[in-house]
Every structure is written in C-alpha cells, then in structure tokens.
Amino acid sequence: MSEPKNLKLPTSNKKQTFRVLLVEDDLAHEALILRSFETHPQYQVITKRTLAEACQLISQYQPDLIITDVRLPDGDGIHFVDQCLHKKTCPIIVMTSFGDEAIAVKAIKAGALDYVVKSDHTLRELPVIANRVLREWRLILDKQIAVDQQSRLIAILESTPDLICIADIDGFLTYLNKAGYELLGIPEDKDLSRIRLTDFHERDDAILIMSEAIPCAIKHGMWKGETTFISASNKNILTSQVLITHKSADGDIDFFSTVAKDIRDLRSAEETIKYLAYYDTLTGLANRNELLKQLDHEIDRVHRNKMHSALLYIDLDNFKCVNDSLGHPTGDLVLKEIAQRLKTEIRGEDILARLGGDEFVVILTGLSSDSLEAINQARQVTKKLNEFIAKDIQVESMTFNLTASIGISMFSAGTDNSHELLRFADTAMYEAKKSGKNQFEVFHKDMSIKVQRQLELEHKLRKAYCNKEFILYFQPKNEAATGRIHGAEVLLRWNDPEKGIRAPGHFLDILESSSLMLDVGHWIFEESLKHLAQWIAEGLWKPEQRLSINISTRQFQDENFSQLILDLIEKINVPAQCIDIEITEYSLINDVKKSVSKMEELINKGVSFSLDDFGTGYSSLSYLKNLPVATVKIDRSFIQDITEDKSDKALVTSIITISKNLGLSVIAEGVETKEQLEILNQYQCEYVQGYYFSKPVPAIEFEHLLISKEP
Ligand code: C2E
Ligand code: CA
Ligand code: CA
User: Fold this and answer.
1) Which ligand lies nearest to the CA atom of residue 528 in the structure?
2) Is the pTM of this model over 0.85?
3) Torsion of CA 313, 314, 315, 316, to 10 degrees
C-alpha cells in the first residue's frame, strides 16, 4: 500500500464527527448501510449515486472517509479511487459484489485502505470497519508527519555549512552531512562505517579527543574545544568543535554527535584585528602599543643581564613639507622607504617601531655593560642611521633628501619606566633638532630639568593670564623718507612679578604649545582694539594709520579665527581699515586655499594683512602673488648686515622691487642705524621699523610719540 502525502488530518477529538461520503447506486444497499450508521452518531453520511456527482461533491464537502461501490453507473470505482487518491483527501473503503475480488485487489493496490465484499453482514459491519480505517489513517498520517519532520531535519543538516556527524559508540561514522564530506574532502559514496572522525585530526588533537574530549562528553554530556582537521587533500582546517554524547533512556551511550565549525576566516579576522592593534599598517612595523610592550621586556632583560640598551627617538626633519608639497601618498611612500632603511640598518635583535607620523623608535639591545662604551656604541649606530636616512630618496620620478633628528636615551638596570624612557629620548630629540637638522643628542639629566622648567613656566603663564600680568607694548612703524608714524606694531610683554618685564622670546613658544595661546591671543586683540578706540576718540590716531597685531599660527588655524576678530571689531567699534594683522607664512602653508579664504573674510571688511619675517621661510617671491597680503615685512636678519653683506643687499633690493611690482608695500624690520635707513631709502623702501626710531614702548609712552611726531 503506497503512502499518500499531504494528507488531511482528522483530529483525535472524541466528540468529533466524521463526514462519510457513500457512493452507492444500489438503493437497497444504500438503505442497509445508512441504517447501520444510524447507531453511530459520530458519522454523518451523505450519499451519491454516480462517480460524477461524488467527485463534484468532494471539494465542497471534504469527507473524512469515502465508502464506494466499485461498479457505478458512470464508470469504474477504481477510476474513482484513482482520482481521490490523487487528490490525497481521505481514506477510501471500496465495496465489491461477490466475485469482484480481483477488482477489489486492484482498488487496494490503487490506494484504498480496505475493501468489503457486500453482504448483509459486511454492510452492517461497515461502521466498525470505518473506525478501523480511520485509526489506520491516523497512523499513516502520524508516520507521514514523522517522515516529513525527519526529511526537514536532514535538509537542515545537509545545508548547514558546519560539519555534522553521528558516530556509533566505537567512534565509526553513521552519518556525515554534505559540509562534512566537503570539509574532510572525502567522496560522498565512501563507506562511512570504516571511518572515525579522529582519523582526520592532527595527532595531538586526536589524542586530545580520546583522552579529554570523549571522557568529558561522557561525563558532562558535551565537550567543546578548538581542533584542527587535516583534510584528504592535506589542508589544515581549524575548527571550533562540539562533541555530544546521546544516551538511551536507561543511561547507556547510544551514539555520539559532533559539530565542527571552520573558524579559519574568523581566526584570520581576529588576527588582523590584533595586528591592527599592535602593528602599523603603512610600514608593517610595531606601533606604540607593541613598542611599549617590547620596551618593558627589554627593561626586564637589562635588569637581568646587566647590559645597556639604548632607545633612539627618530623624527624626520621637515617631513611636513614633503607631505604638504608632494601630497600624502608620496609622504607615505617616503615613510615606507625610511622604515625599510632603518630595518636593514639595525640588527635582528634590535626593535624597530613607528610611533605615528614621521616618528620612529629603535631600541638597540645588548650594548656593552660598560656605560661609556655603550653610549659610544649607540652614538655610532645613530650616526650611521642619520647617514642612511639622509641618502637620496627616489620616489616616482623625483629624487630628494630628508634628514632626521635623533634623541638617544640609554638604559640599564636602574631604569624601570618605559614611558619615562620615551620622554627622555623625545627631549633629547628636540635638543638635537634645535641644534640643526640631521643631528643626534644623548639624553642627560639637565635636559629633564629643562623639561621640568618648561612645565613650570607653562603653569606660571596660566597664572599670569589669570592675574592679568600680560601687557602690551607698541612700536611705531615709520615712513622711511620722512620718519612720520605710519602705524604701529603691538608687541606682547609679560610683567613677571619675579623677573620684571619679559619679552616674548622667553615664553612665547611655551604659550604657543598650549591652548592658552588662544585665550592670550584673544586678549591681545581685544586690548589692542581698546587702545586703538581710545586713540581714535582722542584724535591721536589718523584714519590712514594702521595698528598691526601679531597672530600666532595656533590662533590663525582656529576654525573661528575670522569670526572672533569680526566680533571684536564690532564689539569695540573701531574701523577695520585701521587694523593690520601680521602673520607668518608658517601659519598659511598648511592649507593655503583655506588660509586665503579666511583672510578674505577679514579683508572684505577692510582689515589688511602683513607677511611677517619675510625671507626666512620657504616662500619665494612668486608665491606672494597668490596671497592676499598688503605688506611684506623684510626680516630683521637681512637688515642687520645690509650695510656690509652684499647678498643681503641684493635680496632686500629684489624683495622691494618685486613687491612693488606686485602692488605690495614693503616694511623693513629692525632698523637700528642711520646707515641702514639710508640704504633702505636709497632702495626706495617705503616703511621702516626699529630701534632707530623707537623701541617698543608701553601705551602711555607711545601716546607721547603719537603726539610729538604729529606733523
Ligand atoms: P616680530 O613680530 O618679528 O616682532 C618684531 C620683534 O623685533 C620684536 O621683538 C621687537 O621688539 C624686535 N625689534 C623691533 N625693532 C628692533 C630693532 O631695531 N632691533 C632689534 N634687535 N629688535 C627689534 P619682541 O617684542 O621681543 O617680539 C618677538 C616676537 O614675538 C615677535 O617677532 C613676534 O613674532 C612675537 N610676538 C610679539 N608680540 C606678539 C603678540 O602679541 N602676539 C603674537 N602672536 N606674537 C607676538
Ligand atoms: Ca610682527
Ligand atoms: Ca618680524
């Protein structure tokens, strides 16, 4: 008997009624059958006399059982059985007349659940037969559900990407899913019963499974761990494996199952993450985290073996220029090249890291136990590194040189702090930088005293700002030809309660290195404008005179720079035409386009800009035409020797000529002598500033100058 699929399931509810479709053309038989069902109220019987009528009814009536005669007026009952079976609706009982058994067998083969040879007795028995058939039907359905369920589970097992297998208590496989065959690389027709999963494990893992995993799974039901399979094609596959013991009701082990997930991708992703945390992706060198770790190890090591080691802090000189002028991709290539050079120059046991940007660290290990000898060794290696870095660099079609400044910090058994070591080397590197490019310095205690002093100074400056110890001095700018005051430059002073009036050379770099510069800078601007407003009100300041205020790089690069200035101009209510801002090209060079647009915001309101310290930086004269500056200030260093030094003379003349051609005015700074003034006059330099006319003076003295120099 074939098993119908997608069957309609009669519920097992006791009060349920069953709809019976009786297909019978013989009226006498029909009557007999109906009568026999009368005493069985759970059956509702509806009768049809032809195949056609019955078939039509089936879809509306949805019978739970069909009882049909084999011979019907419009056809063969078997044909009818075929049809109903095809629709898989309900069980069918066929009735035959005596002598029609052959047909009945055919009907059963076609799918009828039972057959009855018609007699008074059998027809009366029909309700009992119906009961049995319906019970049987129920079993068929349950079995079908179980089969469906199982095939779904198998479909799931077969489609999961993890290896799943079942093994008997001796470990031989009884089932392996598709992913399992693939992972282990065995053909699907291979006889599983001779394979154990451990056959595919690495030796150590096979031992682990036998000695640890199985006992654990037996004891606790499950074992979980990481194992490596070696596939038939010899591939190592790292997995996360679960081994489960399945026990029968009486507690005996029935079988084992295993799920193994290929975690090679996961592991390599984890490794990448780990790599990113400890290595620099650009150069492949250790990063700061990894360096600190290795440095700690090295500190432990020098403790043990009484040798010396040296930490070299390497900072490329002017690397920023490479990045700014040639672009970051080229900058990256340069960094890679430098990393490569360092790598080839140091020994395998030395440590090399990139701290970020253009800063590298080398740890020279195992230097002499004699401290002087060790310093000498470190110096020699450092010198070699300096030379190596300074060699020609070929990037794309360009060739150029870079140098580095290197700070050396020696360490031995007395050292225990990696952060401090780095800081010492960093301090020494700054010292090296100060003494020129391509230098190195060994850290010594005095340097840390210096660092300490700087920290103290910063603290004092904060206090100075709060206590209003900053004051402003003013130095006139004069017309070279007449000496008339054309304007003035505001210069910051600190009235230090300990040391008296101090010039910015003593503290400006510290101020600039902290955010305090923004507050102090704002104060300078506000205070300057207040003085200006007062002088205008008193009639001391002419509309054509301009007050020049120095702006630090940090201030200029502040996002709100232009707005802050415009707000101040509005608040204090001074004509913008009386304000000039002195700026150095270092402030502009980072992002010239942005700088220009910032400047233009102010220029549109009437403020002008002067380019300070001209001649000392990178800028060529042609670069000037791209900048919206009104004035060029020739740096004091060129004026100093102008009376003697021919090249300074030539430079100053060309600055004046070209600037004039570009429609810019020129002012010479630091004019101290009559001779200097005369030469500048000769070159037709319009304006001068310097001790020759006046030193920077406090506001009150400057007011006197304004009054006395009035024409
Ligand atoms: P700077 O902008 O180049 O200022 C000119 C410097 O030259 C001033 O030094 C001034 O006193 C000095 N000087 C003027 N004439 C002569 C001269 O004939 N001979 C000599 N030997 N020196 C002369 P100071 O006041 O010490 O300022 C030094 C630097 O500090 C300034 O150079 C400027 O860069 C910065 N600075 C001064 N005040 C401020 C300020 O308010 N804000 C900012 N951001 N920087 C300032
Ligand atoms: Ca200046
Ligand atoms: Ca200057």
Assistant:
1) 1
2) no
3) 180
